[in-house]
Design goal:
Blueprint (H helix, E strand, L loop, with lengths): L7 H8 L8 E3 L15 E3 L8 H8 L7 E2 L13 E2 L7
Parallel strand pairs: 1-2
Antiparallel strand pairs: 3-4
């Protein structure tokens, strides 16, 4: 199920989850972060394809450090440049 902003049932389900382990993941659109404004941890992926799944798993399991900043303001809580600066990856 995608697009939490326009899916009240998805937001209701998220609201029932305990906050101490909640990680809100906005796959397609960063605007999904606005659906649950009190989420303690948020990730904006800008992708929902299979190619992002291994990377997301590595981040959630602590094997990869997340990084990146928002290129746009979503609200007073989420401003341009909010996030974690990313480091260059050696290739």
């Amino acid at each position: 199920m995608r697009d939490a902003v326009s899916n009240p049932a998805q937001v209701a389900l998220i609201e029932e989850l305990p906050r101490d382990r909640l990680v809100l993941i906005a796959a397609d659109s960063p605007y999904d972060l606005l659906a649950v404004p009190d989420a303690p941890t948020c990730l904006a992926l800008y992708s929902h394809g299979q190619e992002i799944s291994p990377v997301l798993c590595d981040v959630l399991l602590g094997r990869l450090e997340p990084g990146g900043v928002l290129p746009l303001a979503l609200s007073d809580r989420y401003q341009v440049g909010d996030g974690l600066p990313s480091r260059a990856i050696a290739r």
